[in-house]
Amino acid sequence: MTALEVLEGLDLFEGVERPLLEDFAARAVPDRLAIGDELFTEGKALERFSVVVSGRIEWSRCINGVDVILSQREGPTYAGASNVLTGDPPVASGRAVTDVELLTWDVPTFRAFLREAPAAMKTTVRLIAPIAQAADALVRQQEKLAALGTLSAGLAHELNNPAAAARRTASELGEALATLQDTVHQFVSSGVEREDAGRLVALQQAALARAGEGESSVAAADREDRLAGLLDDMGQEGWRLAEPLARACVDTDWLEQVEAAAGPATGAALEWVAASLTAHTLVGELHESTARISELVAAIKDYTHMDRAAVEDVDVHAGLDSTLTMLKYRIKHEPVKLERNYDRSLPPVTVHGSELNQVWTNLLTNALDAFNGGGGKITITTRGVGEDVVVEIADDGPGIPADVREKLFVPHFSTKKRGSGLGLAIVSRIVQDHQGTIRVEENPPHGSIFVVELPA
Question: pLDDT digits over 5-21, tens only?
């Protein structure tokens, strides 16, 4: 197939006058790519316009340090028309995944051709916006996925702790219940009378009533040591029974009453009371663990606004608190001091709740990043200004230079070594979509404040 025949099959050259197309085809420079060779390099200005005659090119973009495959294109096709026209470097890299046969033209030759061929110029211009929009949409999606991955890792850690505690507690509770069942059989076989059984029940209830009463850790440890000695003197296993009985603040008189009522079944009676106290404590721990899991699940639902209308009236404080819960693992381990100055009388804002929480996530993550692992303080303030709701997120990090503050919301501008530079651009777009404004200010003596204003 001749160069002219290849060009005639491509939409870019439709409507181009035959003599002009023949002249352009005659200027083609044949080239080849082996598997793995680059046709384009992301961010590097193009030196030629290319037509892929045969073979396949894979397009990828580096996002947050990871090469993300965008698409693959099979020849015959063309590449680089809009970049050569605008002079902008490509936003993706193109690599040969098969042997590729090319026709190429240098930049001046292709631009001269476009000037003489209005139809080709029109097609090239029409390509610019869709290509840029598709690339930005992909990066925005990757930004969301990266944030979701980070949050998921933190949530997995936060959920694992109470889940593991609940599993361990349930196992220990099963052992305590087995002990309770066994001691009842021992009472029966030991011949404990009805009256004595009633006295033991009363002693058990008294111990349960005192369980958990406030006592310093030092006093509790001393009581446990004394009880262990008394139980050893009674021929019981003090090392095992002292800890639960000490929580009930039992004394020598209580032990003597148990021994008098139980007689030969004293050991079983003490086991019974200790198991009852242990079960009582374990139920409290199980309730605390499951409540923590429920709290995290509720925070996830509130953060994502599952099962809710797309646009709704939202309390900004609920969104801020659910976002903080999602980021708790970072706040806890950085470590970072957190101060909330909320005006709870503020009216709700009518927004896409999940999008607004994306704003808080990006701003709080940036504030945490500002400390660079060294710790600091984040202050969240809400207040009303006229009919607007204002949210301020301040950090006492090193601050942002004035020349950098001017570019913070510009797409692809970033001060970080890794990242797409779209985080704050997305924040700005979301706020503007809700008829709000966002700006960044100094936080004397050092640090930064991001101020978001939304109509109530």
Answer: 888 888 888 888 888 88
DSSP labels for 36-56?
T-EEE-TTS--SEEEEEEESE
CB 384 within 8 A of CB 343: yes
pTM attached to this predicted model: 0.48
DSSP 332-350: HHTTEEEEEE--TTPPPEE
Sheet holding 100-106, edge to edge: 29-33, 100-106, 48-54, 77-79
Q: What is the phi-psi region of residue 116: left when phi exceeds 0, alpha when psi lies from -120 to 50, beta otherwise?
A: alpha
Q: CB 140: neighbour CB atoms within 10 A?
A: 17
Show the 3-state SS of 221-249: HHHHHHHHHHHHHCCCCHHHHHHHHHHCC
pLDDT tens by residue, 15-45: 888 888 888 888 889 999 999 898 888 888 8
CA dihedral sign of residues 297, 300, 306, 312: positive
Do residues 272 and 240 touch, judged by C-beta distance below 8 A? no
Q: Please, which pLDDT band fits residue 303 given cuts at 50, 70 and 90?
A: low
CA neighbor of 231 nearest in space, from 193, 274, 293, 180: 274
Tokens of 53: 């005659």
Q: Is the peptide bond prior to 89 cis by the omega test (within 30 degrees of 0)?
A: no
Q: Specify the long-range contacts of residues 257-260, CB closer than 8 Å, at least 24 apart.
A: 257/199, 257/203, 258/200, 258/203, 259/234
| Residue of 51, 105, 40, 103 whose CA lies nearest to 77 | 51
Instruction: Give me the half-sphere count of Cα atoms (radius 13 Å) on the Cβ side of residue 403.
Output: 0
The pLDDT of residue 134 is above 80: no
Q: Write the burial class of residue 261 (CB in 10 Å: 0-12 exposed, 13-18 middle, 19+ buried).
A: buried
Task: List the Cα angle 410/412/415 in 5-degree steps.
Answer: 90
Report CA dihedral (365, 367, 369, 375) to the nearest 10 degrees: -120
Q: H helices within 47-117, ranges in order?
A: 81-86, 107-116
φ/ψ bin of 240: left (φ > 0), alpha (ψ from -120 to 50), beta (otherwise): alpha
Question: What residues have CB less than 8 Å from 20, skipping those under 6 apart?
Answer: 113, 116, 117
Enumerate residues 6+ apart whose C-beta is below 8 A from 207: 245, 248, 250, 254, 273, 276, 277
Give the span between the Cα atoms of 190 and 281, in whole angstroms.
28
For residue 241, give the nearest of 329, 179, 300, 289 by alpha carbon. 179
